[in-house]
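Something for you to look into today, if you have time. Just paste the record in under my message, thanks.
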Amino acid sequence: MDYKTIRFIDSDYKNLFPLLDGDNIWIKYRGFSQPPVIRECGFIDEMHVRVGNSVYHTCEFASNMERAGAWFEPSFQLQDTALAPYTVKEAKRYTCSKSDSCIGHAVGEFGRDGERFWYEWEDHANGMDSLQFRRELYALIFALRKDLLKDEQSMAAYCRSRPESKFVETEECERYGFKFKTKDRIYYIACTVMPRHSRYAIYPYAKRPAAERIKALN
C-alpha cells in the first residue's frame, strides 16, 4: 500500500522526521506558557506541505518556525523507546529477510557531511502493512533521531558505548544490533559503523504470522 509521506526538514534542508499524510504536528512557541497548538498536515508534493489551512514549501515552513522561535514535532510519539542489545539467537533478524513475519526494511545513512539523515522503506508484506504500523515506524524513527540516529558521530558513539551490542568487527566496519518491542511488532536495528558513510537498517517483524494478520484484515 502506498502511503504518502511528508518529510519535514530544517532551514538547511536537513531531514527532521517523516509524517503520514493527514497526521498532526505539535507547534510550541518558546517563551509562551500556552500548550502546543495542533495542526493537521497534508502532502502536496515532495517539497510542499499543507499545515493547517496554509501551504508551504517545506523549507519555508521550517524558516518561519525558526524566525518565530518555535519548534514542531509529530503529535504521535512513542512513550518508551528503551533499546535492548543484540542477542546471538536473533542474529538472522539483523539482515534483510523475506521470512513470513518480516514486514519490510528501512535503510539509510547520513550523507557526506555525516548529518543529512535519510532513509528509504521497502515493503515485504505486499501491501499488508497498515496506517497504524507506518505511524509507529515513523514515530520510532523520530525517537531514534534524538540519540542513536542524531548524526553519524552520535551513532558511532552510542554503539561503541554499548559493546555488548557488537556482533561483527572487521577492518572495514563494526556492526551493532539493537531491538525495540511494541505490542504487535519487534524492530531490529542494525548499525554499521565505518570510517566513511556509516549506515543503519531497521527490520520490523510482526509478532503474529502472516496467516493471522490476513485473517485480522478480513
